[in-house]
Every structure is written in C-alpha cells, then in structure tokens.
Specification:
Mean pLDDT: 91
Protein name: GIY-YIG domain-containing protein
Structural class: alpha+beta
Number of helices: 4
Low-confidence stretches: none
Radius of gyration: 16 Å
Largest sheet: 3 strands, antiparallel
Strand order of the largest sheet: 2-1-3
Distance between the termini: 33 Å
Organism: Trichuris suis (pig whipworm)
C-alpha cells in the first residue's frame, strides 16, 4: 500500500514558496489532501463569483454570498489562508505513520513546535 493511502498519518503540505503546514488524520493523506483542495476550490469559486467571472450554474442558487463563502473557507483551513495570498504549488508528504489517535496528536504537536509552519495552532499543550 502506498504511503499516501495508509490511514493514520502525520503529514506536511509544502508550498513551493517554502511555507509548510503540518497536520494529522485518521484517514489517508490522499483523502485529507482532497478535503484541503475542496476547501481551496470553494474559495477560488467564490472569488471568481465576486469578480463576476463565475460560471453560470444550473440548479439551486448558492446559499452564501461570495465574500461570506471566502471568509468561511479561510476560517476552515490555514492552507486556504496561505494559498489565497500565494500562487505556489502545494505538495503533500507523509511525515510519519501512527495508528493510535493520542500518539498521533502528540507527534503532530511536536512536529509543529519544532518546525516553522503556517499552522494556526502551535501544537497542543
């Protein structure tokens, strides 16, 4: 099984500008990275709508105004907050495998504390 497909990982998402985000998930890295990208796409779609570049879609109208959707996406992810100001490419990488939830949270906190990261939290106390 590929490292990106194993559940229970501590991961890093590295931007080409050298910014780094460290996180953990009980799912696979590919699943969690897809969640981050979906949040980023919501931000970019709302930005396009705000600029009047949005594609006319069939179906029900959006629930949120573009600026509200952008704020919500930024609040949901430090990666979206960074990507909203940077045009760099994002690359996911598994740092460590850890199936135990508590140990995974501890390891994540240690990696966050001992590295320069864009995470909002600086490791759990």
């Amino acid at each position: 099984m590929a490292p990106n497909e194993k559940p229970g990982v501590i991961y890093e998402i590295l931007c080409t500008c050298s910014a780094s985000y460290i996180g953990e998930t009980g799912n696979s890295l590919s699943h969690r990275y897809e969640q981050h990208l979906n949040c980023l796409n919501r931000y970019k779609n709302a930005l396009d709508d705000q600029r009047g570049l949005g594609i006319k879609r069939r179906g029900r109208p959006r629930k949120l105004q573009p600026n509200e959707a952008m704020d919500e996406a930024i609040k949901a992810s430090a990666i979206v907050e960074h990507a909203s100001r940077c045009d760099g490419q994002l690359y996911p990488n598994v740092i460590a495998n850890e199936p135990d939830f508590r140990l995974r949270k501890i390891k994540e906190a240690l990696y966050i504390r001992h590295n320069v990261v864009i995470n909002r939290d600086k490791g759990t106390e």
